Amino acid sequence: GQLSDLRLVTVLDLSHNRFTTLPEDIRHLTNLQELNLSHNELKKLPEGVSHLGTLRVLDCAHNKLHSLPESLGQLTALMCLDVRHNAGLRQLPPALAQIPSLQQMLVDGQLSDLRLVTVLDLSHNRFTTLPEDIRHLTNLQELNLSHNELKKLPEGVSHLGTLRVLDCAHNKLHSLPESLGQLTALMCLDVRHNAGLRQLPPALAQIPSLQQMLVDGQ
User: Fold this and answer.
1) DSSP state of 208
2) The Disease resistance R13L4/SHOC-2-like LRR domain covers which part of the protein (predicted)?
3) Would you place residue 112 in the very low, low, confident or very high pLDDT band (cuts 50, 70, 90)?
């Protein structure tokens, strides 16, 4: 399709179209702020996407992406990137970690490239474990792990010193690590709907910032 006539468009929704490719002249949409490419059959993104200097939201969920171009690091206005449900996507370009505005990265797996991310939503993924390298997300403020199949949390979570919200609801947790008491910035902890969770670490009571604890019974 001829896209270069759309230079003034700020929001473009191309979702649910079975697209397998995108034209390189998408680079001409120089005022674009939101681009929704979700629910297509894209195997790669054109380099032209990296020229969208005003882009704030890029939704590539539910495609067939195997990789992302390193040049996405040039999207210096990007605030939200959604790449969930791309079964072949095993890693993210390290350059994404250099985007100062990037606040929300919605992914299925690879975590250690996301050091600057402040909000991470891993909910509804059937995860049974989390990698220990989650400890590297040292700027994380909100972590949503709800609606998975986690039986325990990795100790690495306790190293997230800026974490304010931890949502572990609807999992299979039997216990929480005592080291969660190290989360001195934590304000909200949700552990509802974990049938096997019978008690909470006493150390949680020592967190001065903790204002909201959502539990089923204890």
Assistant:
1) T
2) 3-105, 110-213
3) very low
Structural domain span for residue 39:
1-109
pLDDT tens string 167-200: 999 999 999 999 999 999 999 999 999 988 988 9
Q: 3-class DSSP state for residue 11? A: strand
Domain boundary at 109, 141, 171, which?
Answer: 109
More confident residue, 117 or 139: 139
Q: Name the domain boundary from 81, 109, 137.
A: 109
Q: What is the pLDDT of residue 114?
A: 62
Note if the pTM is more than 0.85. Answer: no
Whether residue 89 is found in the same domain as residue 153: no
Q: Tell me the two tokens of residue 206.
A: 């020592």
User: Of 128, 156, 150, whose CA–CA distance to 194 is shortest?
Assistant: 150
Query: Going by C-beta distance under 8 Å and a sequence separation of 6 or more, which residues neighbour residue 214?
Result: 169, 188, 189, 190, 191, 192
Going across the sheet that includes 11-13, the strands are 11-13, 34-36, 57-59, 80-82, 104-106, 119-121, 142-144, 165-167, 188-190, 212-214
Cα separation, 175 vs 173, whole angstroms: 6
Q: Kindly provide the b/e burial profile for residues 98-111, where b requires at least 16 CB atoms within 10 angstroms of the residue's own CB.
A: ebeebbbbbbbbeb
